[in-house]
Amino acid sequence: MINPIRLDKASGRGEHQYMRNSNGAVNSPPLDAAASILARETYRHLRLMLVTLPALMVLAILVLAVTAQFEGSISAYYLGPIRDIFVGAMVGTAVCLIVYRGSPPFEDYTLNVAGFYAIFVAFVPTGLAESFASLGSAERQEAVGALRISIGAVIAIGTVFVLLERRFGHWTIPSLLQRQATKWVFRVTNVLGIGFLILVIITGFVDDSFQGVHFAASVLFFVSLAAAVASHAWPGPFGGSEPGVAAYRIIFGLMLAGILVGFILFRVGSDYTALVLELWEIGLFCAFWVMEARRTWPAVSAPDAPDSPPDEPVSPPEYRPIPRHSTTAPETTI
Fold this sequence. Notes:
The structure is a single chain. The protein has helices at about 30-65, 85-100, 105-125, 130-135, 135-170, 175, 180-205, 215-235, 245-265, 275-295; strands at about 5, 15, 320, 330-334. The chain is mainly alpha-helical. The longest helix has about 35 residues, at about 30-65. The protein is globular, with a radius of gyration of 26 Å. Residues about 1-20, about 300-320 and about 325-334 have low confidence and may be disordered.
């Protein structure tokens, strides 16, 4: 029997090899093999989008900085001509992080948390109070009302999503409580998340300034991403079974070093502290997903068909006609 999928061992690429029936029609690969290919391709596209979306945002900022203005942070472009790109790229990144099913479960959890905070980074820009102050009374009221509706919808839908995931999805939270490191991170993350929501309610619904929401969301976003990287750098304490990747340890260390760089720039009074820190972390974020895509790119498929070289496609079977009045099944040669 001919295997419908053959793995090119040299390149790691899976190739479809189809059989033709007696009528000349091409048979589809088995359902489980086809589903495996689709799942692999979906993961590949998700990883590529997690590189493409931030790169799109950074490219637009660089073009605008060269041709028009150079702001002190990425989110400062929120009220500028690339607002749609900024918000769209951040929301798209948030969706990809939440949809992506990480492994081990600790990575999946931290990516979900990062996606949650990324939405607030997109919707609540830095210096929002100053931006509102420049608006008239009616315009300010309209802008605040729209932002409250957006943030309220995010919190409500996020709550429903978590409840549905727990009821019908692959709920992995109990596995986080089985290890000391993941249990500690889980508890701290919950405390920080509750504190963040309290901050949003006080500054956004009791008050209308949303003061500190963007900064808190940005910090928690990058910390969650760093935790996801750590799950591959030191997989043992976080429930991983594969050996740690040295390059991910370097990325994790550089993420922490970015905090020191930002502190130094802040102390010397640089106007671009936030911009440098954001570009630093986004660059490392993209580097992680590029390496993760390369590491997991080769497809897993069925073994090669017997008696066929690994670098040559498998030939379809040759069917011999059945003689008239014969009840013997035809011989098939492969």
